[in-house]
Queue: 3 jobs
Job 1
Amino acid sequence: MPLHVTDYTWSQTDSAVNVSVPLKGAAPGRVDVMSTDQYLKVHFPPYLFEAFWFEDIDDERSSAKIGDGVAVFSLMKRTNRWWQHLMMVNDDKESKRRIREKALEKHLQKVSAEAKIKAVRKQAESKYALETMMELEDQERDRIQKMKDSEREKVSVELVAWQQNHPTPLRDNTKTPEHGSAKSGRNQPVHRETKRRSQEPPPPRAAGNIQITFTPRVFPTALRESQASEEEEWLRKQAEARRVVRADLEELEDLTQEERNPDWLKDKGDRCFVSGDYMGALNAYNLAIRLNKKMAALYANRAACHLKLRNLHKAIEDSSQALDLLTPAVEANASARVRAIVRRGSAFCQLQLYAEGLQDYEAALKIQPENKQLQEDTQRIRDMVQGCPPD
C-alpha cells in the first residue's frame, strides 16, 4: 500500500489556491504529477498525495513548481469565492472512483496530444534545419563560383599582359619546303584527308561488367521502413555498454577473472533465478551492475528478482532504469522493453496502484498487440480500475 502524504499545507485567496506537498527527499525527476479540474495526484514511491478539490479549478491557468524538496501548486479557481475546505468533505468512494477514472482518461488524452504536438514541432524543426543547411550550401557554392570567376579573370588579364610583353614572331607561310609556292594545289588533298579523318566518329567502347557490392545491414527491415538513425544509435550504445567496465572496486583484487566479467555474472544470475535461488541471482546482478552500469538487461533481470522477493519499489526503480537504457526504441529491443514495462506494471499492481499499472500494461500492449496473455492481463487490470470484480 502507498503511504499517503498528510503533512501538506495550503492557503487561498478569492481567485487562487496554493498547495505545498513535501517530497520527503524524492528527486524531482522521480515525481509523477497528474492534474485535472477536479483532481490532483502527486506520486513519488512509496508516497502518494491525492486531492479531490472542494470546487473545480482551471487546470489550464494553473501551474506547478517541483524542487528543493517540495512541490508547490498554484491553482486558479473557476469561481472567485472563498472555499470552506480544500477537498471534498464527503467520503463517497464511488464518486472518487469516477473522478479518478475521468482524470486518468483526460491525462492520457493530454499526453497523446502533447506527443502529437511534439512530433509536429520536431518535424518542423527538422525541415527548418534542412532548409537552412541547403541555403548555407547554396551560399558556399556561390562563394566558390565567385572565387573561380575572379581567379579566371585574373589569369586572363595576366595572360593578356604577358602576350603584350612577349610578342610571338610571325611565320613565313608563303612557301613550303620542297614543294614551292603554298598556293599550288599539291597539298590540298592531304588537308582534305586530314579533315575527313578528324570528322569520323571514334570507335565504340568495349563492353564490360561493373561489380557492385552492398554493405550488409544488421537489421532485416528495408531502409525505407526502418529507423536507420535509431538503429545505429542502439548498436552504438550496445557496443559502448559492452566496453564499459568499472575497475575502481576495492574488492576487485579478491575477485576471480570470471567474476570481473559482467556477462559471466549475468549468466550466473540467470541460472540462479531459473533454479529459484533469487538471493543468489540478486547478488550476481548487483556485482555485475557495479562493474557495468550501462547494461539494461542487468537492471531488468534484477527487477524480476525484486518482484519475487516482494521488493516492489526497488522493482519499479530497476525497471525504469532498464527502460532509460533501452533507448532509442527500435525493433531489436522491443521484447526487452515489453519485459521491463510489464515488470514495472506488475509491481504497481501489487502496490494496488492499478491506474499506474494499467498505463504500463497498455504501453506494453502497443508494442506487442498480438500477445494474448498480455491482452488478458491488461483487461483484468482495466476491470479492476473500473471497479468490476475480477474473474
Note: The chain is about 50% helix and 15% strand.
Job 2
Amino acid sequence: MADALTGVSRALREAPPDRVVEAADRAIRSVLGASGTAVFVADYRINGLWPVVDSRQPEVADQAGQSMVQRCFSSQQPVRDGDAGGRCRLYLPLTVWGERLGVLMVELPQEPSEEVAARAVDVAGEVAMALRAADQETDRYRRARRRERLSMAAELQWELLPGRSLSHDAFHLAGQLEPAYTVGGDHFDWSLDDDRLTVTVLNGDSIGLAAALLTAVTVNAMRNARRSGGGLVEQAELASDTVYYQHRGHRHVATVLLELDCVTGRVRAVDAGSPHLMRLRGGSVTRVALDQQLPLGMFAETRYDLQEFDLDPGDRLFVVSDGVWGADPSGRETYGQRAMARSMRATRLQPPTEAVGTVMRELQAFHADADLRDDAVVVCLDWHGSGDREGG
C-alpha cells in the first residue's frame, strides 16, 4: 500500500500543474484498477460541484450522481454507489487541513474490498494536496470553479483569502463572502501559529474596486506586523497608520482582530469599530460585548487596547459584517435583530463549513432572494477545547 501511495505521489509531483487531474486519473487506474475517475471542484458560492472537464473522464451528469457528489462534499465522508452490473463508484472528499476543495469520483469494476477502499481514501488525500499546490500555478481549476465572471474587486478579494475553512484538533473554522462574484471591501483573514489562531474580519469602506484596494492594503499591513512577530495591537496600529497616511482620514476600515489560544480557549481581541461577534452556547445566541475603538485609518497615531474573553468547549463563535447584521432590504427590522439569531441556532448540528452557508442562505431569503445591497461576511469558529486536542 505504501509503495502504491508513493507511486501516486510521485506521478502527481512530476505532472505539470495544469495536468494534475490527468496524472491522477492514470495513477488511480494503475494503483486501484479503476475504470475511470472524475474530479469535481466547489464553486465560489459553494452552491454546486463542477467537473474539471476532460474527455477521458466519465461524466457524472445524472441527478443521482450529482446527489452523491454533494452528499460526499457535505458530509466529508466517502460515499459508495453500486449498480446492477456490479460496478461501484466511490466518492471521496478532496480536503486539505479542513479546506474543502471538492470530490474525487473513482469508478471500479466491482465492489472494493476494505483495503482498496482505504487505499482510495489515502489516494484522495494525495490528489487534494496536489490540487491545492497546483492551484497557485495554473488558472484551470479556478476557471472550473466560477459560474460567471468575477468583478475586478472580487478577483482581488478572493486572491487575498487564506482559504475558506481550516481544521485543528482544538477548533474548526470557516468563512464565506457574498455576493461572491462582485464582493468589494468586506473580507476575512486567518493564520495558525504555535497554538495561536489569529482571525480578522473587515468591513471595507466604499464600494467596488476602491474598497477592494483599501482592504488589500489593510490586510497586508496586518500580515506584515503579524509576520514580524507583532501582536494584535501592533497589527491594528500598523494597519491604521498605513491607511491614514495613504488617505489622511478620508478612508477607514472597521475591523475586529481576534487571537485564540488553542490550549486554553482564551480570546484576545481588538475591536476597531465593528464587525459583530455572536456566541452560540447551547441553544442561546448572545452578543459578545466589546468596547468599540476607532476604525483603522481614521486618525494618525491611533492607539488600541486589548480585551479578553473565554470560550467554553462546545462554544460556537460567529463574526459577521454590517452587511449581515444591518441588512434591512424592505425597511423593516434588520436581519441582526431577530432573524440572524434564528439562523444561527439552526446551525447547531452543522459543521462550520455548512453553518456559514446556512446563515448566508437565510440572509438571501431575508432579502427575498434579491441581490444583496451590501457586502456580507460570515465567519464561524467552533472551539472544541484542549481536552479533545490532547485526546486526539
Note: Residues 2-144 form a domain with the Beta-Lactamase fold (CATH 3.30.450.40).
Job 3
Amino acid sequence: MFNNAINAYQTIQNEGLSDRETEARVLTQAARRLIICQREWAQPNLRERLGDALQYNQRIWTIFQTEMLEETNPLPLEIKRNILKLSQMVDRRTMDTLTEPEPEKLDLLIRINENVAAGLRGSVTGPVGQF
C-alpha cells in the first residue's frame, strides 16, 4: 500500500504539475477514498476497503512527516511544526478508526485533507465530497 501512495504521487508529478498541486491532488484522492467508504459503510467488504483507504491516507501523511523533518526543507519552522501536529492527529485518528470503526470518525481525516489541499491550491473550495 505504501508503494501505491508513492506511485500516485509520482504519477501526478509526471503530469507536469507543481509540487503543491501534486500534494493537493493526492490529498484530494485520499479524501475521496474515505468519503466513498463513509457512503458505502454498510457494504460487505468495508473492512478491507476502509483499511486500504486509511493506509493510503496515512502513507501520504508519513511522506509529509518525512519531508518536514528534512533539514533542507525550506518551509518556515512554524509551518513544519503545524504539519507535524496535523500528521500526528491523522495517525491517532487512523489508529482509532482501525481499532473501533465508525463512519463519523472519518470526518476529521476528510476535513484535514480537504483543508490542506485547498491551502496548497491557494483557494478555499467546497468539500471534496461534492463531486
Note: The helical segments are 2-14, 19-39, 46-69, 77-99, 106-121.
